[in-house]
Give the backbone structure.
Amino acid sequence: QVQLVESGGGFVQAGGSLRLSCAASGRTYAMGWLRQAPGKEREFVAGISWSGGVTKYADSVKGRFTISRDNAKNTVYLQMNSLKPDDTAVYYCAADRTYANIRPSSYDSWGQGTQVTVSS
């Protein structure tokens, strides 16, 4: 069983930055971040392989968000810069307990989510 605990969400003005963290207890491989805005489906934001050598981003966040991980701390991060009101959502950390490469459909452990609100 894997437990994921997110932190770092909050309220920020457009153009600002936030850094999300996700601490995992238990063995994880590939990890990622997804988000869900009110009235919308959950969408993939960023993923990172177990080694950290491969990353993947949604087109909407490329060049603004950076995913990274520290396997010694069993923690994954999401640095979010140049935030826009459209980035407002609950952000969820996800982990894959099977595959080392990025397969969002294979994520099988989820955090409770952290709210990010970006004002215009």
Summary: The mean pLDDT is 96.
